[in-house]
Design brief:
This is Tautomerase family protein. The chain has 3 helices and 6 strands. It has helices at about 10, 15-30, 70-90; strands at about 1-5, 40-45, 60-65, 95-105, 110, 115. The strands form 2 sheets. The chain has a 4-stranded mixed beta sheet with strand order 2-1-3-4. A two-stranded antiparallel sheet has the order 5-6. The chain is globular and about 45 Å long.
Length: about 130
């Protein structure tokens, strides 16, 4: 699951395109299938989102929650792909993008009535 935060006036107009870019990176780098898009957008009032100096109101936070198993090199490739594609396709500078990958062990995930360590029918590999 991916959660995206940003100032609503900047985030709302680009939600669909940003979702496409993020999922495209997930497919290219992690091999995620097309139908595994799980994005949650949190548009915020400007007074509710404080961001570091040197950033603009385009500041966007992307939190990626996933099961443990991806190599550090794979995670870094995903982050760099996000910076590159968001800049080239949406015009948001990498300085205005913050990406955090949060990993949890498979037994901490629950979906389709089972835990992640019980799932044997995933259409993608977690260990990449």
């Amino acid at each position: 699951m991916i959660v995206i935060y940003g100032i609503k006036e900047r985030l709302n107009p680009i939600k669909a395109r940003l979702s496409d870019v993020i999922h495209g990176c997930m497919q290219t780098v992690l091999g995620m299938p097309e139908d595994k898009r799980a994005h949650r957008f949190i548009p915020m009032d400007a007074e509710d989102l404080y961001y570091p100096g040197g950033r603009t109101d385009a500041y966007t936070i992307i939190e990626i929650n996933m099961m443990q198993g991806r190599a550090p090199e794979t995670q870094k490739a995903l982050i760099k792909a996000l910076f590159s594609r968001i800049e080239s396709e949406l015009g948001i500078s990498p300085v205005d993008i913050e990406v955090t990958i949060k990993e949890q062990p498979p037994h901490s995930w629950g979906f389709r009535g089972m835990t992640g360590d019980e799932a044997r029918d995933l259409k993608y590999s977690v260990n990449v």
